[in-house]
User: Fold this.
Amino acid sequence: MRRRPEGLHTRYADEIALVRTRADRVWVALLVVGYVATPLVLDDFWLSVLVFTAIAAIGAIGLNLLTGFAGQVSLGHAFFLGLGAYTAGVLGGDLGLPVVVWLPAAGLFGALVGLAIGPFALRLKGLYLAIVTLGLVFVGDHLFRNLRLITGGSQGRAIPSPLIGGLNFADLGAVLGMPLSREQSFFLFVIPLLALATIAAKNVARTRPGRAFQAIRDREIAAAVIGVDVARYKVGAFVISSFYASAAGALLGSYLRHVTPDRFDLTLSIQYVAMVIVGGIGTVYGSLFGALFIVLVPRLVEQVSPLIPFVTRSAGAAGVTVFTLNQIVFGVLIVVFLVAEPLGLAGIWRRLRLYFRMWPFSY
Amino acid sequence: MNDFLQLLAQGIALGAMYGVTALGFVIVYKATGVINFAHGELLLLGAYLVYAFHNQAGLPFFVAVPCAMAAMAFAGWAIERGILRRMVGRPTFAVVMITIGLGIVIRQAATAIWGFDDLILGDPWGTSRVALGGLQLNAVSLAALATAVLLFAGFLAFFRFSRAGVAMRATAIDPEAALAVGIPVRSVNAWSWMLAGAAATVAGVFLSAFPATLHPGLGVVAFRAFPAAILGGLDSPGGAIVGGLIVGIVELLVQGYQPELAPWLGDNFHVAAAYLLMILVLMVRPYGLFGTREVERV
Assistant:
């Protein structure tokens, strides 16, 4: 037999292993090669798409743990992203601390706020929770606009580049002794962080907490009956997701150099939920697909729009502008995916793999 | 004291419209168990349709409004029939996300047709004011209040006495039992969306009348009716009106007094105040003031 069928394991350890087969090992090796090769092959435009994707993916993985695994719907992700960005600004910019301090600290601060809010928020079930976290975004917006000493008010504030001593991760060329652009450097900086975030999330998902999350998602009372501490794990999921969101926010701010409160509005929350849905609810790698898709689609629309006759370029007027078209495509995508493909891109990917595994005996 | 009464009166008028908006949430939630995040956009579209019928097609205002209400009822029906019916039996969260997606599409379609400019709706009340005791009230506020009272009484009567209303209540309590006694549950769902569309039009007209204008941001104003619906409890029509009034009054009083009394709370605190109030109430009463507590059975 060339290969064991999917899902057949002879040891429990195999069942939860991250790298199971020789093919998996090849994939990992290919990813490492891709990591080194990509910044040399792609131009800055596509690298910036990938950097935004990687940062968004870190946030989306966090939301997927909360929404996809633990089944708690949150529209407050933007609030935690903002929290992380401003923490990075204060610690890295005002206090001049290195990135090894401010990046974890931003995540921890978000987690702490999540821990403070979580026990209250998670008393609420289902849609009430979605609405309360929605309220959180508006309250956060008010805070970001008015705590001017920290956030710079509506004008926003600068967020520092990731620095450790003399090492600037936004300008790695100086260290490696060859000219690298900001995009190339940032790509090399964030991809390992994304890998770390993915593996950590995978570890949460495949061990005791992950199982507990899924039990809670599927039936809260039943989970409690089999001995899951529902309150503890719900708050835990909220804290983990807040950590991911704040860390992603800190990275986003650092890459953008400057953030304003407008960036952390409800639209951003909706985009993250869309990443989780489009990527695949309840799968870690689905979040990566989802993030890529949601970051990529607007860029593609921008590229294609000059070819569509009825799209105008002037902003602010009636008629279909590029922005309008983008938003409409985004809205339609959410609807289409939910109606037609509830498992998201991860589901499509799984089916494709199955098809080729069985090929040519597709039935 | 006069200032206070003035703010209170304005708050009640604004709250009445929040109440009517929240009523739209409640109707859909009661019948189908879904919070309609596209309600703000229905409201926007309704107001724009009134503008189109009145200012662009030249119909008299009081003909344009029923026409727009009918068109919006049709839009509600189309959404239910075309999209949401396919989602029966799927997680509520998925349906809610669909309404979010729909909302984005409707808002952008509206801006593509009517642009981003502030439009004047051209309602008959205009900018005229009425003196009542020592108070100066906008005529349109009084009209809004009267309409809200009429609408609310109409809905109560509809739910209580009409066949369709009773069928909707039965469906809300238990869809399967309703089916078993011969209630067409599917058309009841469509009905609730039609009613929500029509109610949204009315709220849209008054929320975009003087001193406000009609512009794409109106859909976001409707987000402030969320706290109203939640405060009252999502499944209570009476709660929607009470919640609306509370939110309206709180918003106006905070707007009036907070800059003097508590300037450290920051600019535009009244926008955040409604959400804070909502969060606080939910901490104490997780199902709102008048909502039914869900009993879980295994």
In short: The longest helix of chain A spans residues 230-256. Chain A has a mean pLDDT of 87. The two ends of chain A are 19 Å apart (CA to CA).
